Amino acid sequence: MVDCIKIDIMHRLNYHLLSGRGLSSGEAELHENEENSISKTKNLKKDQPRYIEEKPYGCDQCGKRFAKSATLFTHIKKTHTGEKPYGCDQCGKRFAKSATLFTHIKKTHTGEKPYGCVQCGKRFAKSATLFTHTKKTHTGEKPYGCDQCGKRFARSDHLVTHQRIHTGEKPFHCLDCGSRFKTSGELKVHQRIHTGEKPYGCNQCEKRFAQIGALAIHQRLHTGVRFYHCLDCGSSFKTSNVLKAHEQIHTGEKPYGCDQCGKIFARSDQLVTHQRIHTGEKPYHCLDCGSRFKTSKELKVHQRKHTGEKPYGCNQCEKRFAYLGNLVTHQRRHTG
C-alpha cells in the first residue's frame, strides 16, 4: 500500500515538473541533470517569471504552491495520503514528519514552552505559534478578506479554509472510509474514530477523550458548572443537549414514537429504554453477581447492595439509606 502511495506521489510530482516548466519528458530528464549544477540553475531562474521562480511547484489537490519540488513531495505525502511513519513511544500518536514528532514530544511530554508573549505572559512551544498569537490577539490586524462575504482573517490560510464554505471543496479525505473534509484538522480529528486515539485526559480522573470539546463537557461533572439555562423555569444544565431535552417539558413536544405500542416520548433515549420492555433486552449486567438490567440507572441502584453506598441521609437524624423510597418511609416516623 505504501509503495503504491509513493508511486502515485512521484507520478504527480513528475506532472508538476513537466507542466510547471513547460518541458517534454525528454527535456525534463536532461533538465534534471542540469539542475545539479548551481550555476546553470541560477541562469535558468533568470529566464522565468518572478512568481514561477519563487514557487513553481503547485499541488493539484489544494492549490498550495512551493519553492522546491522536495517540499511539494513532502506536502503531498503528509497532507493528502495520510501516511504517518513516525510514532511517539510515549502516547502512540503518529506523524508524517520526524520534525513534527520531535515538536510533539517537546511540546506535549516535556511541557517546555520557551517562547513567551511580552504583552500577556502566555507561553508557547513554537515561535510560529507565538507570532500568530501576537498578531491575532494583540494587534487585531486582519489583512485577508473574503470576496464572497467580506469576513476578514489574520492569516491567509484561515481565509483559504473559510472560502471552502462557499465552494464546498473538501480536499482532505480519509483513507479508511473515504469521508472528505474541508481542513486537515477535521480529518485528523475524524481519524481518531479508526485509530481509537484519545489524546485528551481529565486531570481529575483517568477518563480520556478523542476531542477537546468532549473533555471540556466532562470536566463540568467535577466542577459542577452549568452554562445552559432554561428561559422558562431557570433550571441550569451542563450541556446544551440536556437543556434541549428539558425544554420539551415546557413545549410538550414528544417526537419519538414506539412502533410496537404507539407510546410517544420527548427524548430518543427514553424511546430506546422503553423498547426494551418489548424486546426483553437487558444490556447492563452486574460484575459482582451477574444480575442484568434494562438501564444503567437500575444497575447503579442495584450495585449499592454490594458497595454499601447510602447516598440518602435523613435531615432529622443521622440515619442513611441506599434507596430514596426507604428514606421517605423513614421520615414519616418523624412527621407522625
TrEMBL record:
Pfam family, one: zf-C2H2
Domain C2H2-type, chain residue ranges per copy: 57-85, 86-114, 115-143, 144-171, 172-199, 200-227, 228-255, 256-283, 284-311, 312-336
Subcellular location field: Nucleus
Database matches in InterPro entries: Krueppel_C2H2_ZnFinger, Znf_C2H2_sf, Znf_C2H2_type
Coiled coil: none
GO MF annotation, one: zinc ion binding
Family according to the record: Belongs to the krueppel C2H2-type zinc-finger protein family.
Protein name stated in the entry: C2H2-type domain-containing protein
Organism: Umbra pygmaea
